[in-house]
Amino acid sequence: MKKLFSFLAIVIALTGFIIFTQTRTKPDRFQTSEVKRQDIKSTVSASGTLSGATTVNLHFQTSGKLFSLNVKAGDSVKKGQFLAGLDALDEISDLNKTQNTLRDKEAALRKVYDDIHLFQYGNGGFGNVGTGNETETQRATRTAAEVAKDNAFDEVKKAQKALGDKSLISPVSGIVLKSDFVPGQNVSSSDTIIQLADKDRVLFEAEIDEADISRVSLGQRVDVNLDAYGGRIFEGEVFGIIPQTRSTQTGAIIVPVKITLLNPPADFISGLTGQASIIIEEAKNALTLPIDAVGENSTVLVQTPRGSENEKVITGVKSDTEIEIKTGLNEGEKVLFSP
Fold it and tell me: Is the N or the C terminus of the chain less surrounded, counting Cβ atoms within 10 Å?
């Protein structure tokens, strides 16, 4: 009999232990979530890189020896800034000569005008220049002087252009990406002396998965998070959708989407990586629940003093984890759900 009681005691102890351990480790079947107000966004997210809207390759218009190079890679430049120049001693000399010739021709023309004026003085003076009151000799002399002056002016313009071709002037405000030559080197008109990234418009090119591209359209707002700036968000706008797919190294098919940054970083660096979240739709101060809390047919299990009751709701904007509740629930109500 003692053995029987001992056996029963062991069985009861083991049964109690099993029930206890199962009760302790078994999680609750339901979780509770409270309906709360918050801003909610539906987005399409993708990685990408920062760049200038355009890349500008600067060449000299003529060949020659590089005399000066005033910038290096990483420098910021302003539109209209002098960047580099070729040896231009001959062009400077030619310009001085043509300018001297122009001054001489202008003086000769003024002398002709003065002679006509003095000859016609008392009968209209300068008012007769170019009129029928001029003599044939006066007209011929004046015309020859005017042509000589115009030709001299044209020669000055040619000399100025020749001298200008010896200089590189920045056509945009931007960042120097490339500047590989050094003064003293001979360069040709085909050599890229300086490469600039346009800083007037900074773009972020996002790689959108082909499955999401139908949701993206021009003008949509974008939040861009650059890896180099931690959690700082840069506002942007969809500027262009490239009508050509590309394959990534992992084999994914993507569509490039260009995003204009509205508040780009002041210390712009081309090639920075980051994440873009294109805002498809959003709701401000909306009632929300976790997505898992809304079941099939848009029903939720509401916790009430009488127990739990099924309630039909109308939903709206959906983020990755939350969903907007348009009607059917009030702020502060509690909902049961199985995650």
Answer: N
Domain borders along the chain are: 43-54+199-282, 57-86+166-198, 88-165
Q: How many CA atoms lie within 13 A of 171 on its CB side?
A: 10
User: 213 with 278: CB under 8 angstroms?
Assistant: no
43-54+199-282 and 57-86+166-198 share one CATH topology? no
- Asked if 120 and 137 touch (Cβ cutoff 8 Å), the reply is no
Q: Which CATH class is domain 43-54+199-282?
A: mainly beta
Q: How many angstroms separate the CA atoms of 123 and 134, rounded?
A: 11
Q: pLDDT band at 8, cuts 50/70/90? A: very low
Q: Could you tell me the strand order of the sheet in which 55-58 lies?
A: 55-58, 194-198, 174-178, 76-77
What pTM was estimated for this model as a whole?
Answer: 0.59
Q: Which residues of 71-85 are buried (b: 16+ CB within 10 A; e: fewer)?
A: beeeeebeeebebbb
The answer to which of 18-32, 179-193, 218-232 has the lowest mean pLDDT is: 18-32
Q: Could you give the residue ranges of the DSSP H alpha helices within the chain?
A: 2-25, 89-119, 136-164
User: What DSSP assignment string belongs to 273-331?
Assistant: EEEEEEEEEEEEEEEEEEGGGS-GGGEEEEEETTEEEEEE-EEEEE-SSEEEEEES--T
* 310: pLDDT strictly greater than 50: yes
Structure confidence by residue, pLDDT tens digits, 30-85:
789 999 999 999 999 999 999 876 788 999 999 999 999 999 988 889 999 999 99
Q: Is the pLDDT of residue 18 over 70?
A: no
Q: Is 87 helix (H, G, I), strand (E, B) or coil?
A: coil
Kindly report, residue by residue over 315-338, the tens digit of the pLDDT.
999 999 999 999 999 999 999 988
